[in-house]
## 1
Amino acid sequence: MRSLEERISRSIWRNTLRDWLELSRVDVVIVGAGPSGMTAAKYLAERGLKTVVFERRLGFGGGIGGGGMLMHKVVVDEQALPILNDFGIRYFKDEEEGLYVIDASELMAKLASRAIDSGAKIVNGVHVEDVIYRENPLRIEGVVIQWSAVVLSGLHVDPLFVSSKAVVDATGHDAEVLKIVARKVPGVNMQLVGERAAYSEASERLVVERTGRVIPGLYVAGMAVAALYGLPRMGPIFSSMLLSGRKVAEEIMRDIS
Ligand code: 48F
């Protein structure tokens, strides 16, 4: 009889490696488990697309958890209500015209839980450090990943690869994947303009309008859209993050299914 210690380790090794074999090729890689990434994950996975979210931190939610200046509430406008209903997220109408209020913890927990229930995998502690590209025609065909712990330690360790039909940059204000593509993929003529100062109403509309495909195989959602196109920021109103996540999912489904 194996000791409990041995059985614990064997169980974790075997099942994690089974998962990673499955994840070596997926339909969609989403980088970042913030609101836009997790929303996209649910809508993609429930349509049967094999979807993985890589999140470099040891938890999900991105910018949701900090609420507005550490107040534990966030707001949305009425356009986001159908998405909140899809996810079973509770909200109430505020006395401020046109605004609905959500507990930040409920928003992050239920976005993650519904994405997972729909079949998406959220893998924490994994940092996307590069992309896979192909030429003629130019396209993105996956990502290069490394444990966040290795990145933080500064050790020189070669990474591994995940192939996919679509990669979504949902990394928020830093637009990390887009920055890598702009710098390292030959033949991509992309300039990241950088996010502008606050203009919530315009930002909420423009981020959703500009969400979508950047080059073949590469998509952008959430605040990374603002960083790419030089759009204003909106602060702790999250409607456009959810709408952007849904829109990018719809666009990917049109392109790859
Ligand atoms: O920043 P984040 O929440 O992105 P979002 O979906 O939402 C933005 C809002 O939270 C808020 C706002 C609008 O109301 O202004 O800021 O656009 O989540 C991005 C996630 O991506 C992870 C990061 O840790 C965060 O959880 N991330 C960033 N770079 C990488 C990454 C990377 N290279 N690899 C893996 N994860």
## 2
Amino acid sequence: MSTITNHMPTEELQALDAAHHMHPFTCNGELAQKGARVITRADGVTLTDSEGNQILDAMAGLWCVNIGYGRDELADVAARQMRELPYYNTFFQTTHRPAIELAQKIAELAPGDLNNVFFAGSGSEANDTNLRMVRHYWALKGKPSKSIIISRKNAYHGSTVASGSLGGMSAMHEQGGMPIPDIHHINQPNWWAEGGDTSPEAFGLAKAQELEKAILELGEDRVAAFIAEPVQGAGGVIVPPDSYWPEIQRICDKYEILLIADEVICGFGRTGEWFGSQTVNIRPDIMTIAKGLSSGYSPIGGSIVSDEVASVIATGEFNHGYTYSGHPVAAAVALENLRILEEEDVLGHVQNVAAPYLKEQWESLLDHPLVGEAKIVGMMGSIALTPNKETRAAFAADAGTVGYICRERCFANNLVMRHVGDRMIISPPLVIKLEEIDLLIARARTSLDECYARLKEDGLLQSA
Ligand code: PXG
């Protein structure tokens, strides 16, 4: 139980952590000097650390705790399921009630003919599944040369070899021999950073048309699928111009390219609908899910697959799966999470209460001297920090220097607001209350003020 933290001083925990725990996406040498922040408990939207600080978690963990922390119902369901059937696999012609019920529920929630679920333990695994499934689909259709998957620079699709290759994070590709062959990256629709003098709408259209250009260059007979997040999350909450997605859908239809919507962040209410695909009005053939599926209470992900693709895959054995595909405890927890989302009308709260208010408050930050752009879709938002709003300039300092300073101020002010380069991002629990949004904005403002003062002092307000 968590009592360990009540009996050990923070420094001891930090020393043990530094001695034995390798953190993901972290310079562990540097962290060992500094000591990791120890989180001990959480309730609603608030984390408590080992020093007793109460921190507003405007990232919902890692974009996942959609229903907020501290819901006993999920703990009770997990305990019950562990006693009844803690584990059984779904490989050798067996199944169990939690996997059946969850697949059926997901099929009911998902739009169109997305009626089939292949379970995984995470979003990364689900995207590995997708890569293999779409290639296998085309092979079964007699077109094995259709194996290239087109993705986007600055996309995040996970951290396994296949999902990291699908992603467009150059810092990841520099390590460990990625990307694997037959993955092609086009540019992202990031107007603020890359749009120059073009209007957002013209820029969005031009970026979508890069897909068509790539298909024509690579050959229609070579391209299996296009994968993208409806709204790029880890890339910095990059909201595409309205012109972008309709054009992408047109191109996928025209060239018979499967569309994979990575809904790992956007899914389960984050954008205000059940799925981001509904918010941007696209018809994917496959959706990747994880995170909000269980609100992070248990590790589970999956692929929601169209009837067409699933029926072709069903004609033979698909030699793929995970020990924990459809894990009964994870599935039971996810089901309880979906029950809460539905019965407590969390999407209604987002649509009618939280998102409109958050949008108004978030956009009010535009009056701050550092904030050049404020974007928000549902409950995921970003601001671009800039030394010059008119020219949309980047800072002269290395990308991320200023964002990091701002993030450190946020942490000092008991607010988890992340930075991606010099964009600050939020993705709070969907159940956040209006007074908590006020607190979020107040702390963000204080942190921006402190960041600004520091940049002035250090001469960092220079444009690149
Ligand atoms: N797709 C998307 C769109 C994601 O955001 C994954 C796939 C992979 O899911 P798993 O469950 O394998 O982590 C993600 C995960 C960040 C950050 O820095 C974001 C994620 C993971 C780790 C860090 O914002 N998203």
## 3
Amino acid sequence: MRQEEIEQALKNKEIKVYLQPQVDLHTEKIVGAESLVRWEKDSAIIPPNEFIPFCEQTGYITQIDHYVLETVCSFIQKWKKKIPIAVNESRRHLYNPHHIEDLQRTVEKYEVEAKYIELEMTETAVVHDIKMAKEAERRVHALGFKVAMDDFGTGYSSFSMLREIQIDILKIDKSFVDEVTQDRRGKIIIEAIIQMAKRLEMITIAEGIETKEQAQYLKTIGCDIAQGYYYAFPIPIEKFERRYLA
Ligand code: C2E
Ligand code: CA
Ligand code: CA
């Protein structure tokens, strides 16, 4: 992949924002969505795993994430019944002093209350420099944004991070959900995570729900929200709006 290709893609607006619904396990209503990018190149769709790592290395991720937030805010602004939307925060941003000002400027520009934006951070971003991450969390909370921890449980320091950083939403990684209906040990672990999250007053979202059995089980153990192909695939933001918010 070459830098010029990404530059062209951004300029030609080939990078598109998709949204995947998040469903309340108890009411089965859509209570939010996560924004995920796709690169619509010629007539193919390139998934983020094929260009996000390159963009993180080269710094283009900053432009992509800014573009995603702008797009999301411009949509939220016109929704009568607003729902919160999650945006992925690359670890690059935590080290960019202008980033938080940029977040603030963008929500103000579209007159969107910051509480409708959930900033998803990953553990790898945070452990890299815990002091910086703590400071970033404190500042975004002061502005009213919500903070979610993405891919919870996949790294080495998930728990110590929870002690350090104030998190509103815990996203339990798909790898825990995959085997949850068969694996006794896996069940014990996920149940304990959900109990802990409740006591810490965090909302729990289970990622990668693919079957009815998984959904039912997660509901019985008190998980709040589910996101996965069982409910819906990520779809272009315009389509999401027509389908769910019209
Ligand atoms: P992620 O943040 O963990 O996003 C969840 C991924 O799981 C998405 O993959 C989503 O499409 C996929 N997924 C959702 N439900 C299911 C399911 O039931 N089964 C399976 N097998 N997968 C499911 P996607 O869209 O390919 O994104 C991959 C990763 O790329 C994301 O992982 C995120 O780390 C990154 N990414 C995507 N969009 C952005 C963005 O705008 N900015 C940044 N910085 N990273 C992004
Ligand atoms: Ca995410
Ligand atoms: Ca995730």
